[in-house]
Design goal:
alpha/beta; globular; 12 helices; 6 strands; 12% strand; six-stranded mixed sheet
Length: 281
């Protein structure tokens, strides 16, 4: 997976530098395919036991050690799959960023509360907190159909290849903290969690690892190019909607990066924006 994701980072720069392809459609996918539910279980976000019949393809040893840090229940199976891993994990003590800064928390508190809040996580290597492809399209679409009714919060996580190898878990802790902060600061706002690619894993992890009180405030989870497509979210029973570009195999959890996965900047998100807005009516 690491070599594929390095290709992602390179191609992401290409797609944000040159014109986006002509608009194309989105597919809704609501069932597990490929290894999507297996890696969701590995992350701990689905609440399902990680007990695969075959070892998932991709990943890295350092990524597996990172996963174990956040989901210790997967340790025994991972150590059985890779006997050398336990010794390696004991030597890896580098802490990844997995919390909001004091300034970021204060920024949330200072923002004016809107009737609805979208918390969005960008894809790997994208700039800003909303990214450059799906995030701006969704945020702009919501402002068009419901002017002044949406507050947009980007998850300020490190959208890195290392985070992909860790199945979005470090960013997921930040998303969980952002969710809790928004829920506390704006007790009446209706919250939608959304993300693209790595960001899809981040928001799923964020909801799963949030407190029960914060999780209860989420009205819906809407993802794009989602590696965990079809998986449930631990402790969460409200709507989950996954959108995929036609031919995007990342939605199979395979991390096979194709032009379809990089085409979201030219995709018509009208249906997805309408769906998100309908979730809070």
């Amino acid at each position: 997976m690491s070599s594929m994701l390095r290709l992602t980072a390179l191609l992401a720069v290409v797609t944000t530098t040159f014109a986006s392809p002509a608009p194309r459609g989105l597919e809704t996918r609501q069932s597990c395919s490929g290894q999507s539910c297996t890696i969701a279980a590995l992350s701990g976000s689905s609440g399902q036991p990680y007990n695969p019949t075959t070892t998932p393809e991709g990943g890295s040893d350092s990524g597996d050690c990172c996963i174990i840090r956040y989901n210790p229940s997967a340790a025994n199976v991972l150590y059985q799959e890779k006997p050398e891993l336990k010794a390696l994990c004991a030597t890896l003590n580098g802490k990844k960023r997995d919390a909001l800064t004091v300034e970021e928390v204060e920024n949330v508190k200072r923002q004016t509360c809107a009737p609805n809040t979208l918390i969005f996580a960008r894809g790997t290597s994208e700039l800003g907190t909303l990214g450059t492809t799906v995030g701006p399209l969704v945020a702009g679409g919501l402002e068009v159909i419901a002017p002044g009714r949406w507050s947009i919060q980007g998850v300020p996580y490190d959208a890195s290849i290392a985070g992909d190898d860790c199945l979005g878990l470090p960013g997921g802790q930040i998303a969980a903290q952002l969710l809790a902060s928004v829920a506390s600061s704006c007790p009446n706002t209706k919250i939608i969690m959304s993300g693209y690619s790595e960001g899809a894993m981040v928001v799923r992890d964020g909801v799963a690892y949030a407190t029960a009180a914060a999780r209860a405030r989420v009205n819906g989870v809407v993802t794009f190019g989602d590696p965990f497509n079809g998986a449930p979210i631990k402790g969460y029973s409200k709507p989950i909607q996954t959108y995929c570009a036609q031919g995007d195999e990342v939605c199979d959890g395979e991390f096979e990066i194709s032009l379809a996965h990089l085409s979201y900047g030219g995709i018509d998100t009208t249906e997805a924006v309408a769906y998100i807005n309908n979730l809070v009516r």
